[in-house]
Amino acid sequence: MNEADFIWMNGEIVRWEDARVHVLTHALHYGSGVFEGIRAYETDRGTAVFRHRDHLARLARSAELYYMDLPFTQEKLREATHELIRRNELRSCYIRPIAFRGYGEMGLFPLNTPVEVVIAVWPWGAYLGEEGQRHGIRVKVSSWRRMSPDSFIPQAKACGQYLNSILAKVESAKAGYDEAILLDDQGHVSEGSGENVFVVRDGVISTPPATASILEGITSASVKQIAADLGFEVVERDIARGELFQADEMFLTGTAAEVVPVREVDDHLLGEPGELTQAIQKRFFEAIKGQREEYLEWLDIVDVEQPSVSQEQVGTA
Ligand code: PPE
Question: Is residue 2 packed enough to be buried (19+ CB in 10 Å), middle (13-18) or exposed (0-12)?
Answer without folding.
Answer: exposed
